[in-house]
Amino acid sequence: MLTRAAGMVAAFAAGLALVVGAILVVRHLTAPSKPELPVIPENRRPSVESAARACAPLSVPLLAAQIDAESGWRPDADSGHAQGISQFSPATWKEWGQDGDGDGKADVWEPRDAIPSQARYMCHLYDVVKAVPGSGTKTGATRLALAAYNAGPNAVLRARGIPEILETRGYVDKIMNDLLPKYRKSEEKYQRSEAKHAGRAAASPSDPSSAPPSSDPSASASGASPPATRQP
């Protein structure tokens, strides 16, 4: 009788363990995973890094966050009134579009033209919003410049701040509160990785000329003179 009772207890315990295990597995599979940080596409990085040097307020994370919000990095993005990776309207592109890739024409669909044009226009907008209340801080000036990029500088000047336009306010908040912090972290991670790779390359030079001189006694016995030191 005791043996039968013990078997029933053991079976119950085994069944309970299976149920608990299944619950833990389900929780693990359904638990929200930590979102990955956005990254700058490698083929766009040279343009973004170069464009970020256009003026002091700009940065790589800011331009990247703005491009993400504008087009999701799609060069063929077309909203109907704005075009390309940086979403220029035809009128704004006519005034601010520039030839960034040196092919002799300014093409709104070419990211190597559009991204430096975006930076150049943002630098102009930073100057425009200096007259608007709230521009005295770096964050305030950036919010106003982004609003001017989205709604137009005249709208910001008339409103004496960010216009009461739902799209514009959502655009500024998305960049400043969501995308910009993520791209800052992403860029920090990228720079750490680059520094690590550079350190490894320095520690393990592949240039044969950096190898230590041979200790083979036959080298001196042959009468061959050592190579001359390269002058700077």
TrEMBL record:
Q: Where is the composition biased (Basic and acidic residues)?
A: 186-197
User: What segments bear the compositional bias annotation Low complexity?
Assistant: 216-232
Q: Which InterPro entries match?
A: Lysozyme-like_dom_sf (IPR023346), Transglycosylase_SLT_dom_1 (IPR008258)
**Where are the annotated segments for Disordered?**
186-232
Q: List, for all copies, the residue spans of the domain called Transglycosylase SLT.
A: 60-161
Q: Which SUPFAM superfamilies match?
A: Lysozyme-like (SSF53955)
The lineage's top-level taxon is Bacteria
Q: What is this protein called?
A: Transglycosylase SLT domain-containing protein
Q: Which organism is it from?
A: Streptomyces demainii
